[in-house]
Design brief:
about 45% helix; 13 helices; alpha/beta; globular; disordered C terminus; 11 strands; two-stranded antiparallel ribbon; 9-stranded mixed beta sheet; about 325 residues; Spore Coat Polysaccharide Biosynthesis Protein SpsA, Chain A
């Protein structure tokens, strides 16, 4: 690439990022997190007690939540190894995920699932940058059922067998029913999970330090009780099968993208789910086994009192979350 071509490419990338920022600032989540930015400003002015009281009044902090500090992380040790679990239904979006994953310096493995009958060569070209960086990439064709949840169930044990200590689950989320907002949400999720090398390394160390019960979720993904809805029956079935309780306040990473430690994948693998457990794809927006499995992570977290690192908060401010049985770690 000549210098002129490089300048043109960088300018195009800059324009694209500027468009994402404009879209983010006009998004619903940006408006909803305005109280947090006010809290951050008050905190910087040196009035934490007053800011805390203001946050309580604005329902940013609620009764029943338990906020804890960041546990000691052994910064001097080698960064724990990471395995990425990627479901790439949309081939054209996969390069976006590959580019983001390159912000994880300790990524050793990537399991990339794609619909059976898909263009394997196209997927091979898309993941080439990871292969060039020394990542072991496995392309796995799966039946087109259960969105990104059936692929997770099918490769959970294989991911554990890589020996990785920490896992990141992402997928080529498009959400056609959301229109342009779906594109914005995907950008918020990816940028929240993989903002930069240093932030990603600290997240990986945090999740690994929590062993079986550590999670990292982007602020744009926290779903709650209002999202349980018609999935109650399937969720109850799965939770009984896994020996988990359904909490009164169910919090889970809506959008299906998060960091996790080995315990959650062991739970998913032990369920023994197969394609027959998932409905045929008919464009459903709710009430499927995939939606129930997506929410089961909230049952796992509550039952095991998991510690959740909430990422991608505005202006670097930690996001306190009201949860049932969870401990919330504050990013710094």
């Amino acid at each position: 690439m000549t210098p002129d071509e490089l300048i043109v490419a960088l300018q195009a990338e800059n324009d694209g990022l500027a468009a994402v920022i404009r879209a983010m600032e006009s998004s619903r989540s940006w408006r909803l997190t305005r109280p947090l930015r006010n809290l951050a400003a008050a905190w910087r002015r040196g009035t934490p007690r007053r800011a805390y009281r203001q946050a309580q009044r604005r329902s940013v902090l609620r009764r029943g939540s338990m906020v804890v500090g960041i546990p000691p992380v052994p910064e001097g040790d080698p960064c724990p190894s990471v395995c990425a679990i990627v479901h790439a239904y949309y081939l054209e979006i996969l390069p976006e995920i590959v580019w983001a994953l390159q912000r994880c310096g300790s990524l050793t493995n990537a399991l990339v699932t794609f619909p059976a009958g898909g263009e394997r060569e196209g997927y091979r070209r898309a993941v080439a940058p990871l292969v060039a960086a020394g990542v072991q990439v496995d392309l796995i064709a799966v039946e087109n059922r259960g969105r990104d949840m059936l692929p997770l169930a099918l490769v959970a044990q294989r991911a554990l067998d890589t020996g990785a200590e920490v896992f990141i689950k992402v997928h080529t989320k498009r959400s056609p029913h959301l229109g342009e907002q779906g594109v914005i949400w995907r950008a918020e999720l990816l940028n929240g999970l993989l903002p930069d090398l240093d932030s990603v390394e600290h997240t990986v160390r945090f999740v690994a330090a929590e062993r079986s019960f550590g999670f990292g979720v982007p602020i744009a993904s926290l779903g709650g009780k209002a999202h349980r809805g018609k999935n109650r029956a399937a969720l109850s079935l799965l939770s009984r099968r896994a020996g988990l309780r359904v909490p009164r306040r169910l919090y889970f990473p809506a959008g299906g993208m998060y960091w996790c430690s080995r315990g959650w994948l062991e739970t998913v693998a032990a369920l023994g789910l197969t394609a027959e457990d998932f409905e045929a794809e008919l464009g459903q927006l709710d009430s499927t086994m995939a939606h129930a499995l997506e929410r089961l992570i909230g049952c796992y977290a509550a039952t095991n009192k998991a510690t959740i690192w909430v990422m991608g908060t505005p202006e670097g401010m930690p996001q306190p979350v009201a949860v049932d049985g969870l401990r919330v770690a504050l990013p710094r």
